[in-house]
Each structure stands twice: as structure tokens, then as C-alpha cells.
Write a structure and sequence with these properties.
The chain has 130 residues and is mostly helical. It has one domain. A two-stranded antiparallel sheet has the order 1-2. α1 packs across α2 and α2 runs antiparallel to α4. The longest helix is centred in the first third of the chain and has 23 residues. The protein is elongated and about 55 Å long. The protein starts with 20 loop residues before the first helix and ends with a strand.
Length: 130
């Protein structure tokens, strides 16, 4: 294999290629910050505490299921795509991916195609959208 995604029939670079780790981590951090901000709107003047986790789950599952991207992914030009070619990721796949991503380790254990266990379990891959 010469590049990540080659086994999946994806291009080596540009739109539709497998996303790099840097952008993926940056999108994840942006989503965490946005979730904390949203949760704090409902809990102010107190800190959001665990409400941030609920906000993160909602802000990750719903847009990923419907649009294939979280707010952070949208900003950084990433999207989640099903390997079977269907248009929508759907709630079950987005939920499996998010629950496993919550534990971080499944996302860190990747294969040659840069797919973490959470992506493999959900049957998806994170691609560059631009």
C-alpha cells in the first residue's frame, strides 16, 4: 500500500482522500470547545460540568448522522462517509462512532488507512471535503 485509503479506492490527496490526523484532532478540539460553550449557555453562571458531555454527544451524533460532519469538521473541510457509498451516515453508525470516540483509545488505535476502531466499527472513513 502506497498511501492511506488506497485499499478503499480513495485518491492519494485532495477532496475525497483520507483525512490526516492533525485536522481530525483540531476538529475534535473545536467540537469540544463548542460543546462547552453551548452547555455553559444553559448552566451560567455555574460551570457546565457534565452537561458539556451531553452537548458534545448531541453536536456530534445529529450532524454526523444527517450531514456527515460535525461543526468542527465543517470548519476544517472534513466529512464522515460510509464505505458502502450510501449518502447518509445515519443515527446508529453516528452513535456507535461517537460512543467509541468518547473513550478516546478506539480513535487512537488506527490502521494503515488512518481509520480508528470507532470508524471501523461504524463502517465509515473520515475524508477531506476540499
Amino acid at each position: 500500500m502506497r498511501f492511506p485509503g488506497e485499499r478503499l479506492g480513495l485518491p492519494a490527496e485532495g477532496a475525497g482522500s483520507v483525512a490526516g490526523y492533525g485536522r481530525r484532532v483540531a476538529a475534535f478540539v473545536l467540537d469540544l470547545l463548542l460543546s462547552s460553550l453551548v452547555a455553559s449557555l444553559f448552566t451560567a453562571p455555574r460551570l457546565p460540568e457534565n452537561w458539556s458531555v451531553l452537548a458534545w454527544v448531541v453536536l456530534t451524533v445529529v450532524p454526523t448522522a444527517a450531514f456527515g460532519m460535525t461543526p468542527g469538521m465543517t470548519l476544517l473541510g472534513l466529512r464522515v462517509a460510509r464505505l458502502d457509498g450510501r449518502a447518509f451516515v445515519g443515527i446508529p453508525r453516528a452513535l456507535v462512532r461517537t460512543v467509541l470516540l468518547f473513550f478516546v483509545v478506539p480513535a487512537v488505535v488506527t490502521n494503515a488507512d488512518r481509520r480508528g476502531f470507532h470508524d471501523r466499527a461504524a463502517g465509515v472513513v473520515v475524508l477531506r471535503s476540499r
